Amino acid sequence: xxxxxxxxxxxxxxxxxxxxxxxxxxxxxxxxxxxxxxxxxxxxxxxxxxxxxxxxxxxxxxxxxxxxxxxxxxxxxxxxxxxxxxxxxxxxxxxxxxxxxxxxxxxxxxxxxxxxxxxxxxxxxxxxxxxxxxxxxxxxxxxxxxxxxxxxxxxxxxxxxxxxxxxxxxxxxxxxxxxxxxxxxxxxxxxxxxxxxxxxxxxxxxxxxxxxxxxxxxxxxxxxxxxxxxxxxxxxx
Length: 237
Known about the structure:
The chain is α/β, with parallel strands linked by helices. The protein has a single domain (13-236), classed as 3-Layer(aba) Sandwich (Rossmann fold). It is 44% helix and 22% strand. It contains eight helices and seven strands; from the N terminus they run ααβαβαββαβαααββ. It has helices at residues 13-35, 38-50, 69-74, 89-98, 136-146, 164-185, 191-200, 205-214; strands at 59-63, 81-86, 104-108, 121-127, 147-158, 218-226, 230-236. Helix 1 packs across helix 4. The chain is globular and about 45 Å long. It starts with 12 loop residues before the first helix and ends with a strand.
């Protein structure tokens, strides 16, 4: 049965790209401001965990790369190449200024139809992007296609949770973040209201993992970063 409490959000590529184009100049500042810089620790933990794997080669797809904070952290792994993929030109422009390396290539593409060959990547990362995918299952199938056998998918995002701590966080994300974020970013599209709604209308960790298992992924582990709302999920093809 579908969850009728969930609001239908407009997640079309046109809507998402224009929204993130609009808030790109303030995006990094507001991310760090709202999380008190803890988001940097979440990304560094991904890099630390990936260091534990013995990759013979390391070609990474950083999907929904945004302004490149996770891409920058992944560069510390000394990969052969990172493809930073996003649908916002303004976000990718900031990424290119932030990371000047011949090992990073930017690609404007949605997750539903990736312009890469089968089994092209050893690791795919998605930092705060899966809940914006227009079609989640189609996107996950595409990620599975471009991952090499034994490759890893790492997802960092906000997930729906009904714990007491999560409800306290939801008051913060539902009231303070939209008001302050829309004001400081001067967002005419009310982007930070959408970002909160996208959390409220997303899946629980268990629901998300269930979908990935149906598509052939194997769940390795989940790290609870904050109040069971912010989680990092490690999956293997």
